């Protein structure tokens, strides 16, 4: 059976030649080992790569999108999977400032901002600092309750 037929048959509760196989996510490091080159898949690593590409300009972002698309299709083919995940986590927001190789600031540095950093070991791209949020007052809470009751 072709992968498409296998997946459709499974959803329709028909017999298949084998159970359809799907892998929801990959570490970029593991995918790179499978493909034998740097693979543009993963979670936080892909978000950081997109932030970096947006920072580096339109040509870099175009290349990022092309490589991500190519690798999202090549990896499941190489692993003989039946379902393709066509894209991975996006971070399509250009950073306001590059702090260092792995760290970007987003938002208005004078008002509402947050800083995100990639940990290359874990491949996580996460918030490591943010502007203080104003404390809610009783008036704020009353407005929220009023809005919920409508």
Task: Tell me what you see in this structure.
With 150 residues, this protein is an alpha+beta fold. The protein has one domain (3-149). Helices cover 42% and strands 15% of the residues. The protein contains five helices and four strands. It has helices at residues 3-11, 28-35, 44-56, 58-78, 138-149; strands at residues 97-100, 103-107, 113-119, 124-130. It has a four-stranded antiparallel beta sheet with strand order 1-2-3-4. The longest helix is centred in the middle third of the chain and has 21 residues, at 58-78. The radius of gyration is 21 Å and the shape is flat.
Strand content: 15-25%
Instruction: Label the overall shape.
Output: flat
Domain tally: 1
Write down how many β-strands occur, each being a DSSP E stretch of 2 or more residues. Answer: 4
Mean model confidence by pLDDT:
94
Uncertain parts = none
- End-to-end distance, in Å? 54 Å
What is the CA-based Rg, rounded?
21 Å
Q: What level of helicity do the residues show?
A: 40-55%
Structural class based on helices, strands and sheet pairing: alpha+beta
SSE order, one letter for each helix or strand: HHHHEEEEH
Widest sheet, order of strands? 1-2-3-4
Tally the helices. Answer: 5
**The biggest beta sheet, please?**
4 strands, antiparallel
